[in-house]
């Protein structure tokens, strides 16, 4: 399958028109034979891409003490319990933060407060934080999430995810796509039979079908 994926990626990159900005490479996934009104049938997975996303991923950490100090080395922003309470009083600021941030990480003991203060903002956006257990290494967790994308169908039959950038090697992008397809086939009720089609494209370029 890897060779045929790479052929589709190469075509998508070669046929993309010249742009004056760095385009992302995206995957469009079409599902079939699934009742997506039933939340248990929806796709909602975090996938670590072996070759990275090719883009900046903004990560905010809720932490205190030593964990906060270490998180500051790798995260885009570190917020403590006091900041959390302030956000709870400022709905517009909370929404802006949610929209600007790709992933949130939080010490497990702050999760209850996050649910109370930010649950109504982060929950509907699918951005509730990844809990950080006492034995977890915050630096390792944040660095892993920088290479992570979210597969989230919600109730739609077609959904999209980022798999790279136009200046990445086609082989690296293909490796990322291969990992996503394998995860989907493992998680969907009927595996590949629930996939109606997968297409790869740059932001503004033509879509090319990826054989599955």
From TrEMBL:
Keyword terms of this UniProt record: Repressor, Ribonucleoprotein, Ribosomal protein, RNA-binding, rRNA-binding, Translation regulation, tRNA-binding
- Check the record and name the CDD domains matching this protein: Ribosomal_L1
Q: Which GO terms describe its molecular function?
A: rRNA binding; structural constituent of ribosome; tRNA binding
Gene Ontology process terms (BP): regulation of translation; translation
What the entry lists under PROSITE patterns is as follows: RIBOSOMAL_L1
A GO CC annotation given for this chain: large ribosomal subunit
Tell me where on the tree of life, at the top rank, the source sits.
Answer: Archaea
Q: Which Pfam families match?
A: Ribosomal_L1 (PF00687)
The family database entries (InterPro entries) matched by this protein are listed as:
Ribosomal_uL1, Ribosomal_uL1-like, Ribosomal_uL1/biogenesis, Ribosomal_uL1_3-a/b-sand, Ribosomal_uL1_arc, Ribosomal_uL1_CS
Quaternary structure?
Answer: Part of the 50S ribosomal subunit.
Q: Which family does it belong to?
A: Belongs to the universal ribosomal protein uL1 family.
Function according to Swiss-Prot or TrEMBL: Binds directly to 23S rRNA. Probably involved in E site tRNA release.
Q: What is this protein called?
A: Large ribosomal subunit protein uL1
- Which organism is this protein's natural source? Halorubrum cibi
């Amino acid at each position: 399958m890897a060779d045929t994926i790479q052929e589709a990626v190469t075509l998508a990159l070669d046929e993309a028109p010249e742009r004056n900005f760095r385009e992302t490479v995206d995957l469009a996934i079409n599902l079939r034979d699934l009742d997506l009104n039933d939340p248990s049938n929806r796709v909602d997975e975090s996938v670590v891409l072996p070759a990275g996303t090719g883009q900046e991923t903004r990560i905010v950490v809720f932490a205190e003490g030593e964990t906060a100090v270490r998180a500051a080395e790798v995260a885009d922003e570190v917020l403590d319990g006091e900041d959390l309470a302030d956000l709870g009083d400022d709905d517009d600021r909370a929404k802006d933060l949610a929209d600007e941030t790709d992933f949130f990480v939080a010490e497990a003991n702050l999760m209850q407060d996050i649910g109370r203060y930010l649950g109504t903002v982060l929950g509907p956006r699918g951005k509730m934080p990844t809990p950080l257990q006492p034995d977890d290494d915050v630096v390792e967790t944040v660095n892993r999430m920088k290479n992570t994308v979210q597969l989230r169908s919600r109730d739609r039959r077609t959904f999209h995810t980022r798999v790279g950038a136009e200046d990445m090697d086609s082989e690296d992008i293909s490796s990322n796509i291969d990992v996503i397809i394998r995860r989907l086939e493992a998680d969907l009720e009927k595996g590949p039979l629930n996939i109606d089609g997968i297409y790869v494209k740059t932001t503004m370029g033509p879509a090319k079908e990826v054989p599955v």
